[in-house]
Amino acid sequence: MATTNEYADYVMSLLSQLEDIMLRKMMGEYLLYYKGKLFGGIYNNRFLVKITPHSSSVLDREEIPYEGAKPMLMVESEDMEFVSGLVEGMYDELPEPKPKKKKS
């Protein structure tokens, strides 16, 4: 089951206190970026974030986003301040985006 547009809108509303959030649709699901860094996604109407020291200190429910993927942590809070703090706290722990390859 793919994520509904309504659920994606709901997650974006939770993230609305943050600037420079990008939602990218991919194969019926969504990837979430903060200041250019991938921090999580929305999979089957579940808001999941990468496991980092900060995210694992405040969340504890691991989920597999799709078959063959690494585990992620489920965000179950509806508190916008908590969610904003979670993403901001994860930012420095996330890897830098890979440089885009030049087309030949």
A few lines on this structure:
By secondary structure, this protein is α+β, with helices and mostly antiparallel strands.
Write structural notes for this entry.
This protein is α+β, with helices and mostly antiparallel strands and 104 residues long. A six-stranded antiparallel β-sheet has the order 1-2-3-4-6-5. It has one domain. It has helices spanning 5-14, 53-58, 80-91; strands at residues 21-26, 29-34, 37-43, 46-49, 62-63, 72-74. The longest helix is centred in the C-terminal third of the chain and has 12 residues, at 80-91. A hairpin with a 2-residue loop joins strand 2 (29-34) and strand 3 (37-43). The protein is built from three helices and six strands.
How many domains would you count in the coordinates?
1
Helix content bin: 25-40%
Which strand order spans the largest sheet, edge to edge or round the barrel? 1-2-3-4-6-5
Strand content: 25-35%
For the structure shown, list the relevant keywords.
104 residues; globular; 3 helices; alpha+beta
Q: Could you give the topology of this structure?
A:
Blueprint lengths: L4 H10 L6 E6 L2 E6 L2 E7 L2 E4 L3 H6 L3 E2 L8 E3 L5 H12 L13
Antiparallel strand pairs: 1-2, 2-3, 3-4, 4-6, 5-6
